[in-house]
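Structural prep section.
Before we set up the soaks we want a predicted structure of the protein with adenosine-5'-diphosphate in place, mainly to decide which crystallisation condition to try first. Input record follows.
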Amino acid sequence: MSTASKRILSGVQPSGTLHIGNYFGMMKPALEMQQPHTCFYFIADYHALTQIPEPQQLRDRVHSVAVDFLACGLDPAKTVFFRQSDVPQVQELTWILGCLMPMGLLERCHSFKDKTARGIAPNVGLFNYPALMAADILLYKANGVPVGKDQKQHLEVTRDIAIRFNNQYGDILTVPEPMIREEVAVVPGTDGQKMSKSYGNTIEIFGTEKGMRKKIMRIVTDSTPVESPKDPSACNLFALYKLMATPEEIETLRGMYLAGGMGYGTAKQMLFEKYWDYFRAARERREEILKNPDYIEQVLQDGAARARAVADATLREVRRAVGLR
Ligand code: ADP
Ligand code: TRP
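Run finished without errors. Recording the tokens verbatim:
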């Protein structure tokens, strides 16, 4: 995709507290696109229903994702930020697209296959998850969709269905490009595996000082003795430090690893201080935002109104094209 200003869209499921894997893998790149592009970012609460959360838990998580995104630098003056379910038009498009989708296309999707393989009886919502995601993207005529690698297949389904629709009904939908940053390494968790809510190895963006210090001090390392030189490239502590430190700071720590005589406890202490400092401004902004719950709702409502205007226009074209009134 060219670098000229495009319409960028992405969604995040409100499935738990955001961690620094989410931040460096998804939020930071998405936020950096705010300036040159028109961005639509939304909280995918319809998608979250496929896991049947407690109603209050769902509301709390939507709220918490909204607060965290705003604190991390989402600018509602530049970006259309909204709650998916505030634009129910997306459900009508899901139906229309669903009627063009072969069952086999959805049956092949990992989101569905993985659950069935694990013996979980999937609900129809989970089966239809990629159709809703395609509608999310096509309703806003997005050109580019920044996502993690795990979402690539859903983007292929979206492109496939947009092409089918256009072939059948005329050139109405925009065929989107996935924007997958291959170079974004997987952020490791405290146990060295990929950081993920499902593995219980996360460092939250906005954890408490005491809690996060404890988690960082417990990061799993190898058993190289204090006096021996250590390999920074094989160390998850170092990988985390690199995400947040300046080039000079990274070189200093690299030197300490290679020289020997440094215990991992020292590196953990440095990592904690770096982490705490890195998110300091966002943490302070978050405290301010939390004092004003009306502001958060206002941002989401304004975003929804702007999103709805685009959604209505697309849906009018689509309805006319397929023969609905
Ligand atoms: P989790 O694995 O904790 O459930 P999600 O699947 O909700 O996280 O991911 C939300 C977004 O954050 C996705 O775009 C995903 O690619 C990104 N992401 C999640 N974990 C990591 C990680 N450890 N490293 C890089 N990106 C990540
Ligand atoms: N399925 C995405 C995830 O789990 C969330 C999502 C829903 C999304 N709709 C989208 C992402 C549309 C990009 C575009 O991460």
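Observations: The two ends are 35 Å apart (CA to CA).
Flagged for discussion at group meeting.
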